[in-house]
Amino acid sequence: MVLEGKTAIVTGGSRGIGRAIALAFAQNGANVAILYAGNEEAAKEVCSQAMAFGVKAESYRCDVSDFAKTGEVVKEVIEAFGGVDILVNNAGIVRDSLVLSMKEEDFDAVISTNLKGAFNLIKHTYSHFMRKRSGRIINISSVSGLMGNAGQANYSAAKAGIVGLTKTVAKELAARGVTCNAIAPGFIETDMTGALSDKVKDAANGMIPMKKMGSPEDIAQTALFLASEGARYITGEVIKVDGGLYI
Questions:
Q1: Which CATH superfamily groups domain 7-241?
Q2: 87, 91, 228, 236: most buried, per Cβ within 10 A?
Q3: How many CB atoms lie within 10 A of CB 63?
Q4: Which residues are known to be catalytic?
């Protein structure tokens, strides 16, 4: 098992991409700390599924946009698991609207969760990784952050910010043996895309060269690779997992 004995923090781990990553890590031997915003039942179910692989799993309610709270939770996880080896910043929200009608609070909310949330977790694990002289940081960006997307000024800006944050942290921590990379998913079959109409889904599939949406497991397998020893000499990269949507 490629992650045996490792411990991973996965934000937004109760559903979708975060859930898939947490379970892929657990299946490969990693203990997992699931951070979730509100659905305690879903988070506990993921922990139960993870523990079926013989690893330790615990869930923590945490608003990742809250700097002090993320610090408290990281401290709890380190104490409970004896350390952290992998951080996956996946938590995210959407508040879509054209700039003309976008509310200030909706712009701020998305930036706070999707971008500042990643900074908060990195900030509070930074010294721990430095002392260990090892670690993997994996940030979930989006192709929307690379190419922009009408109606998503807040989301695209946050995900573009993730790219800059990833490259900066990679440069800062490389000499300490810590890697920092990002994954940029395209259209992925999650609760978020599940709410789209069939017409919108058909239009989306039509834009994808592979003519279909990806699955959360597609992202999870990329995260698994980036967390493994096989990716020990890869840092500062943004890997698109999008079926060719943005070539």
A1: NAD(P)-binding Rossmann-like Domain (3.40.50.720)
A2: 87
A3: 18
A4: 155
